[in-house]
Amino acid sequence: MITTRGAGFLAAAVALFFLARLTQVGWVYLLDSVLWGALLLSAVMPWLTTLFLAAQRSLPPPGVSGAKAWPSDGGQIDIQVTLRNRVFWPRFLLNLDYRCPPAQPQRVRLFVAKLNGSQRARLTPTIDLHQRVNHLLGPVFAESSAPFGRFRRRCELTPAEPLLVYPM
Q1: Closest CA to 148 of 15, 13, 54
Q2: CA nearest 71: which of 132, 121, 141?
Q3: CA-CA distances (angstroms) from residue 79 to 18, 97, 108, 127?
Q4: Which of 73, 109, 153, 154 is in the most buried spot, having the most CB atoms within 10 Å?
């Protein structure tokens, strides 16, 4: 999907193309070709970055320690997200996020700077539990707008999962 900056960049490239056609100046054509190349690269790279990614979110199993059940209201929980690159080329600048109602704020955002080819990355955010109820953790999404932020692609990697928080 094209971003607002990408739309402005596209409008500038089209306007520069018409200016180059009108004036027939070579360096304007050269500058316009650089803009079109950057647009094309920015349109292709997010698709290649989010293609063939797999993720798995693992919640710790519920348990009982002493007289109270776990995970409980007022405690903390570690939710592990394992991101797997299924192809040989590396991935750069990936944003992962999912909706997590027990967390404050309710969006958990994770950033992966580099994921080598055929490798895994384990990300473990710690969530403070503040409300006892059966929560529904949203699906994990991967988003990329690299390298220039002109286009963005967002894909769903895992489905939604329930998380039961017991009373204290």
Answers
A1: 13
A2: 132
A3: 53, 12, 10, 7
A4: 153
pLDDT of 18 above 90: yes
Helix, strand, coil tally for the chain in percent (to 5): 25, 40, 35
Express each pLDDT in 135-166 by its tens digit. 899 999 999 998 888 999 999 999 999 988 88
Residue whose tokens read 């903390």: 76
How far is it, in rounded angstroms, from Cα 65 to Cα 126? 20
Q: Is the pTM of this model over 0.85?
A: no
Q: What is the pLDDT of residues 47-98, one digit of tens each?
A: 999 999 999 999 887 776 665 677 888 888 889 999 999 999 999 999 999 9
Using CA atoms, how far apart are residues 86 and 19, in angstroms rounded to an integer? 45
